[in-house]
Amino acid sequence: GRIHVPGKGLSRSALLYHHSVPTWLKLTSDNVKEQIYKLTKKGLTPPQIVRFVTGIRILKSKGLASDLPEDLYHLIKKAVAVQKHLERSRKDKDAKFLLILIESRIHRLARYYKTKRVLPPSWKYEPSTEAALVSVK
């Protein structure tokens, strides 16, 4: 089951959302790479750009890939948003508990990425420094 959730989850197939083919699919491999570079510079994430092509590897070879893995980045972004909320309303006990759960997910995921050598062994989650890295609107 999912972490920090009482339910077990249901396994079933999901319907596709987009049935149309992307316009850049019929291009050559060099044109696809150029399109990936353009979309990355616009701010799209690799899963939004390419799911079936090796988007991350192409971006790493060009030097455009981010230092943090994407799932860890989004967890940190969520934690920073909850911290910002707690600065305004300090007595929100549910948000305090939610922050504890989010931070435990961050630590667990960071431990996994350290063993897989995606993150350096000295990397540590510190809420004060991560708030500067992740800009929350």
Automatic annotation (TrEMBL):
- Is Kinase one of the keywords? no
**Stretches assigned to the Small ribosomal subunit protein uS15 N-terminal domain:** 1-56
Q: Which family does it belong to?
A: Belongs to the universal ribosomal protein uS15 family.
One Pfam match:
Ribosomal_S15
Q: Name one GO biological process term.
A: translation
Oligomer status and interactors: Component of the small ribosomal subunit. Part of the small subunit (SSU) processome, composed of more than 70 proteins and the RNA chaperone small nucleolar RNA (snoRNA) U3.
Protein name, as recorded: Small ribosomal subunit protein uS15
Q: GO CC annotation: what is one? A: ribosome
Q: Which GO terms describe its molecular function?
A: structural constituent of ribosome
